Amino acid sequence: xxxxxxxxxxxxxxxxxxxxxxxxxxxxxxxxxxxxxxxxxxxxxxxxxxxxxxxxxxxxxxxxxxxxxxxxxxxxxxxxxxxxxxxxxxxxxxxxxxxxxxxxxxxxxxxxxxxxxxxxxxxxxxxxxxxxxxxxxxxxxxxxxxxxxxxxxxxxxxxxxxxxxxxxxxxxxxxxxxxxxxxxxxxxxxxxxxxxxxxxxxxxxxxxxxxxxxxxxxxxxxxxxxxxxxxxxxxxxxxxxxxxxxxxxxxxxxxxxxxxxxxxxxxxxxxxxxxxxxxxxxxxxxxxxxxxxxxxxxxxxxxxxxxxxxxxxxxxxxxxxxxxx
Length: 325
Fold this sequence. Notes:
Blueprint: H1 4-19, H2 22-25, E1 34-35, H3 36-45, H4 55-68, E2 77-80, E3 85-88, E4 94-97, E5 100-103, H5 105-135, H6 141-150, H7 158-173, E6 177-180, E7 188-191, E8 193-196, E9 209-212, E10 216-221, H8 226-235, E11 241-245, H9 251-266, H10 269-277, E12 279-283, H11 285-297, H12 301-315
Parallel strand pairs: 10-11, 11-12
Antiparallel strand pairs: 1-3, 2-3, 4-5, 6-7, 8-9, 9-10
Helix pairs in contact: 1-5, 5-12, 7-11, 7-12, 8-9, 9-10
């Protein structure tokens, strides 16, 4: 599971299980459960967990698990809402192999610790490279551009892709303007401004970026599953959405795939037309590359890199002070 909140939730629940020695003594069914406040405090003390919210512990983890393991009869988190007590589902920790029963709680904790360490090292390396490139952006703009391009490849981490696509689009739109006003006398030229509305993977109803003064909504996705597009459109009550897709598939082909999926799912022509009409624009990896070419000509690569560094630190729960704000 790709989201950091899922790792920390599993970590704190299994840690509570092991700290109370249930992996050795058994009788977990008699346990009163871990307090929400203790789990939440511990979760925020972990690497990448300082700004995590409570929806993971409350329901989102189980939802994500069901999506990926739809045939599994168990969910990871058991809870009693009234008492705010939580348990890890022990059925997922006890496995049988070669006619023997094993409790994998301790091994799971060690795997999680190694995963987090590896993830942190990779992020530290990425951040170090970003900051080094920032120091000589003027002398070696090609290296800066190559580095940014490497961050929008199909195999890149979804959170990094969202951050980088935002940085690119922000400085592409910044050079575009419209004439806007409520009366003829108040019409003036305004630059398009893109705002990142939340941290990556936040439970915010599907709005990743918002543009002023046009009021456009942007949703970043790495899937080509058409159901995801329609779900995001439904969340916004069929308000037009621009989708930024982590894909090299040509835009026309993506649109045809989405339409084919809509026809298969809904059958009714008017319903299909309504959903397709809500897709304001599709931006793919090639579109982002073209935007970056424009940004390079406008000598704004350094600003894009600064934006990437800023939001990477924020999204990965590291302190960041913006000197310009």
